[in-house]
Amino acid sequence: MRVYEIVFTETLSKVVKIEAKNCEEALQTAHDMCMSEEIILDASDFERYNYGLFMD
To answer: CA triplet 12, 15, 17: central angle to 5 degrees?
Structure first.
């Protein structure tokens, strides 16, 4: 098994690591986890992010 990094991008982005036999299985697992709400994209995932870096 290998570990694949999957990047979810909607309004926010999130990187998760999925252990799978191949890329297709990793993508399917990530999709299934997202659909079953095991992976949720929301602002709480980004609490440690310094938004001040991008302010004018």
So the answer is: 155
Within a domain: 11: yes
Q: Work out how many domains the chain is built from and give that number.
A: 1
Domain that holds residue 25: 2-43
**CA distance linking residue 29 with residue 27, whole number of Å:** 5
Phi and psi torsions of 52, nearest 5°: -65, -20
N-to-C CA span, the chain: 45
Neighbours of 45 (CB within 10 A): 15
pLDDT range class, residue 21, cuts 50, 70, 90: very high
